[in-house]
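REVIEWER CHECKLIST
Item 1: Sequence provided? yes
Item 2: Single chain? yes
Item 3: Sequence as submitted:
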Amino acid sequence: MQIIEATPGANSPGEELLIHTLASELDDTYTLFQRVLLPRAREVIDAILVGPSGLLLLTTHEYAGTYACEGDEWFHSPDGGQSWQPGSENPIKQVLYDHIQLKSYLAREGLREVPLEKAVVLTHPRVNLIPQRPAARLFRLRELAAYARQLTGQTYLTPAQVDEVVAALQRTAPTAAPVQVTRPAGGQVPQRTRHNRTTWLTALALLLLCISAMCFAFALVLLLQNL
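Item 4: Structure as written out by the authors:
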């Protein structure tokens, strides 16, 4: 599996667990886009998985505790299920909004018929989830791993169609470079080649060095003028 960071940024522990889970099950025919900001959208999409099975839009959260979902409503129980109150955030409505934005973008790119699923992934190990006809898929990490294994046997897009979708999403971040993630052996953490972020940091360091040199030269000129 390869990763394309549409927007540079450090991964949270939950995002790293998401990458580990997917990379453990999927081969290099799959691409995971991270932090995608679509044209006309208000918010960044956490992740979009693209492969022969179609697209899977993902929003990730590190909630701990007991949560329930009914349709597009989200509830939290502070006492383990004895009482319920609306959650301070609603990841279901978030992923539904992201789904509308992504579907609209794909349509504008001429990709109306691409299979598109949506899911909320809860990455914290101590989360208890009670789904009641949720309006989107709900996964804990073990359930996401099982779902990813099912994807490997599904082929709805040809390699050319996959490339077309990847190219369309890359146009939202033309400077982003792919990062290869190898499938781990024996449950080890996947190895990631982070050449794109290293290149970006190197360029930033050189820019800061140039600015410092210019400031020093300017200060030296002023000093000589005052002598």
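Item 5: Key structural point noted by reviewer: Residues 20 and 189 are 6 Å apart (CA to CA).
Item 6: Recommendation: ____
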